[in-house]
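Proteins fold reproducibly. Consider a sample protein:
=====
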Amino acid sequence: MATVLNIGLQVDDANLRAVVQKRVDKAKGVKLAKDSSVRMDVIVADMGEDPANRIRRIGAMLSRGSAAEAVLLGAEPAPELLILAMRAGIKEFAALPLREGDLEAAWDRIRSRAVDVEKSGSGPGEIVSVVGASGGLGATSLAVNLAWELEARRPGSTVLVDLRRPDGEVPLFLDLEYSYTWGEVAENISRMDQTFLRSVLAEAENGLRILPAPSFSQESKPFVTPEAMRECLKGLADMFSYVVVEDNGGLDPVSQEVLSVSKVQWLVMAMSVTCLARVKRHLEDAARRDASFPERIRLAAARVVKGGDIGPEEAAEVLGKQVSCTIPEDLRGTMAAINQGRPLALSAPKSPMLKAVREMAREFAKENRASGKKSSLFGLFRRSGAGESDLAHQPA
């Protein structure tokens, strides 16, 4: 978005139009668009005689990229119009009569959002997925704390995607309040761009961005295709250096897509005979589906205790693959973190698990710097000339 915002007007009321034009003339960093065919940074519009139709028209402009953002002017809208405006991608509303500074504040927020999008994305970024060989091994704890540590190393660099199906639990681990999930993204994939994605992300206290999972029920099960999830992760990788995904870990079509775009997938396992058998089958199945899959998978042995019956060397011999990371048993620290809804760094800073996770984050960040951005799969899929429209849905 340009430093000087190009403002377009769709204001039917002549008196109001004159007021807006005067505000544009007086304000710094904005100018009226001279030609309606030129792409506008901001469209300022009143409700008109048919508010619903006006909102839909603005939404169409945002969708096709004729304008990046919009400011809607009018009396306090009815709830149904407000929802319609949100879904159309309108993020700014100024009540009439206009007060001094209302429009200027809206333009400042729009400019700030554009700067945030430009600065935060050093993409294309790298994707690291975390899956559990079975339930209860701490895959969610690992994903949450790995994302937290990557964000702590480099503020603004990381987004965490909760792709557990059904009913992901990432928000519980961070005591997180949120309004939107990847369900909204999957339903509106044709409208997806960076502004839209940023609008649906929740934010943890250290700045880590999170895309929560929708709640599945018998009545309503959010549907996501592999293609939609690929587009979502591709978009996030264009915005952030690190995209951490907690996935189910099976090899259903969506999980295969996640693995195919992951630079690394951490497979969390236990040092037990039954778990080793499960991991071996998983690796063999992955190899049959795509020869590159096993190369992406790294083994993380969880809840490791000294003097256990099976050690990393024995596991490697059984699996034909080295155990890349061992995570010590720390039931007390991890349970305290979960119950408090806080990461280990805040709830149990001396946790041995935290030490292992920090080493994982350090090594991954080091590999990312060494490989350079050109190695990212998403370098092949960079968007060119994408509009900056937005869409916000009420939760499903």
Notes: DSSP finds 16 helices and 13 strands in the chain. Residues 126-381 form a domain with the Rossmann fold fold (CATH 3.40.50.300).
